[in-house]
Amino acid sequence: MRQQTSRRNFLQGTAVAGLGYWTAGGVQAKESKSPNERIQFGCIGIGGKGSSDSADAGKNGDVIAICDIDEKRLNNAAKSKFKGARKYFDYRKMLDEMEGKIDAVTVSTPDHNHAPASVMAMRKKIHCFCQKPMTRTLHEARVMAEVARENNLATEMGNQGTALAGLRRAAATVQAGTLGTVSEVHVWTNRPVWPQGGPRPKASEVPAHVNWDLWVGPSPMRLYAKGYHPFAWRGYWDFGSGALGDMACHTSNMAFAALDLRDPISVEAESSGHNGDSFPKWSVIDYEFAATDKRPGLKMVWYDGGKLPDKELLDGNVAKGSGSVIIGDKGSLYSPNDYGAEYQLLGGVEQPEVDFEESPGHFTEWVRAIRGGKPAMSNFSDYAGPLTETILLGNLAVWSGKKVIWDAKTQQAKGTDSLDQIIRPEYRQGYSL
Asked: With pLDDT > 90 as the criterion, what percentage of the chain qualifies?
């Protein structure tokens, strides 16, 4: 424990800035005592997005431990990229054995393992980078934000568009009043691009290189099938969060930054229907937000599975692929881009001069915070947690099939406890928050 405390003091992080710190004049955290100290990383999940996340860790320090349930991936990474790193199949074992040696961890697993892995790391005072969506469930998002704040840790969710100058300029443009009073936001995606809305895939033999029990992790055990690992798990309630969870952390991000779209008061969904196991083939989700001291009440509509907003909302433009539009009484901001970083102003309004702070790079923001600099914009406590809660509330409405009146403070659907299993499900034995 003494070694851990020493490293902790040496690479002290912070998570004190609120939403909007990224604009000019944001809060600056204390400087690191020694910027030359190399950060010791552990990487949980090294395939898919985990491949680039672990590579980023290697560029910014030393990767001394890697973990994956796929033995082929694990061995290939150990041979090609991270020679000398300790290898693990179980992140719980890795975090226990490497406690005091690891300064920071990347978590790039399927959604259902994000929270248990991240929270375990943070309770050991380890800084944490977690891929989007930050969690699979609403309660997990709240816990991750609270644990990060309690332990004063440097954290970041992997929604890399947050660092793009175009997104920050767009958000600052809206905040400057360019569009007038905003009343509506519409966001759409080309997802899902994986099978969902149907029966479970046929069970098959577990490949010798896959540790299926560890892959299932905290979720209810089920038989292995080729339709889960390594990608199509996104379409299943036990493992993923559907098209909304996969892409809204990107495509809704600009509007969230511009309008502080946290704590919806109600949400209602129309969809193709679901069987309680797989997400629907399509959904359209209506969010309602109360007024704040900076903006009036407004609504946001999410579209997936081929559903799109009317072209009348886009001033003659045709919605394709993924994008978003923010509608005000003076004009609109339309982005045909997953990240909101490319946009055009509609309705005759012109681009004003706006101030915003450019990012040094998404992963670099987190490394800077680990070294005692200002927090990453998408830190768990002040930004990524509230963003994730907003997004996942849409899935609560999809599951319910009815309008959900939401109490964000208590994380309860008013008037019913039938949704508690979706808000805060129980983990399988051996896993906890």
From this structure: 90
Q: What single-letter amino acid sits at 427?
A: Y
Sheet holding 127-131, edge to edge: 86-88, 61-67, 39-44, 104-107, 127-131, 155-158
pLDDT score for 18: 35
* Cα-to-chain-centroid distance, residue 128: 13
CB contact set of 414 (below 8 Å; sequence gap of 6+): 405, 406, 407
pLDDT, tens digit, 9 for 90 and up, residues 20-31: 444 433 333 333
Could you tell me how many residues make up the chain?
433
Determine the average pLDDT of the residues in 38-50.
97
Alpha-carbon distance 81 to 183, whole Å? 49
Average confidence (pLDDT) over 369-382: 98
Q: Whole-model pTM?
A: 0.93
